[in-house]
Design brief:
This protein is an alpha+beta fold. Helices cover 36% and strands 16% of the residues. Strands 5-6-7-8-9 form a 5-stranded mixed beta sheet. It has a 4-stranded antiparallel beta sheet with strand order 1-2-4-3. Bound molecules: iron/sulfur cluster. Iron/sulfur cluster binds next to loops.
Length: 241
């Protein structure tokens, strides 16, 4: 069966990535903050043995990718994963699931990154930003300034600096070319930071050009202008950075 490019794009938006052989797909399984329980892990193992070639890989973002699935099995894979509460997805022009470091178990972390990821996923990935953005929007969280999850490469990055105080960087990007995000002045509580994340996505939705990454929107409009809008701080505070 030959799929059109539009069909492949639609499947990619659902978490199925077509292989060049025209037959197989990889299935992206969302693993919040990289933590899966034993029941979920057993189901992933079962699914990759039943529908794939008996192996799976971990992605850079701590999700799971099950390769070598055939088109006729895609719905079965989704249904079986749903039996244990696992979902497929995390692709497309929308807010992506939060990418975190292992700050829920790392002794260096200033906060629980798993809790932060759950809040971010509920509010942004599953919430009103699930669609409708000019391009993908990545939120990256790290528990301390070691930045193991590379928050400066996120559209917006949150980095623990003091107990429950985070620095925020905006306009990062990685891929074929990469941009290091710049930090906004000051430190923020997690609650303040998440409000700024929401403002950033609203700003991007209203001011970004279709297909343009947030890094490019900031480059086009100016870091100072966007930063001033997001934080409510005077432009002069940015000019002196
Ligand atoms: S960024 Fe800090 S808290 Fe997170 S895993 Fe690395 S060292 Fe630990």
């Amino acid at each position: 069966m030959e799929l059109t490019d539009a069909e492949k794009k639609s499947l990619k938006g659902q978490g199925y990535i077509a292989y060049k052989d025209g037959v197989h797909f990889s299935c992206r399984v969302l693993i919040s903050a990289g933590k899966m329980n034993a029941r979920e892990a057993r189901k992933i193992t079962d699914v990759c043995e039943k529908y794939g070639k008996g192996s799976f890989t971990l992605t850079q973002r701590l999700n799971v990718e099950i390769p070598w699935i055939q088109y006729q099995d895609l719905d079965n894979v989704k249904r079986e994963l749903m039996e244990v509460g696992l979902a497929i997805g995390g692709t497309g022009m929308r807010a992506r699931p939060a990418h975190t470091c292992k700050g829920s178990v790392c002794q260096m972390s200033f906060f629980n990154t798993e809790d932060a990821a759950q809040v971010i996923d509920e509010r942004f990935y599953k919430g009103q930003y699930h669609e409708l953005l000019p391009n993908k929007f990545r939120i990256i969280v790290s528990g301390c300034s070691n930045g193991c999850s590379k928050p400066h490469l996120g559209c917006i990055g949150l980095q623990g600096r003091k107990p429950d105080q985070v620095a925020i960087s905006i306009g990062g990007k990685f891929g074929k070319d990469h941009v290091i995000g710049r930090e906004l002045p000051g430190l923020y509580s997690m609650s303040e930071a998440l409000d700024i994340v929401e403002k950033a996505m609203t700003y991007y939705r209203e001011n970004g050009i279709t297909g343009e990454r947030f890094a490019k929107t900031i480059e086009r409009i100016g870091f100072e202008t966007v930063g001033s809008f997001l934080t409510g701080r005077a432009l002069s505070e940015f000019n002196n950075m």
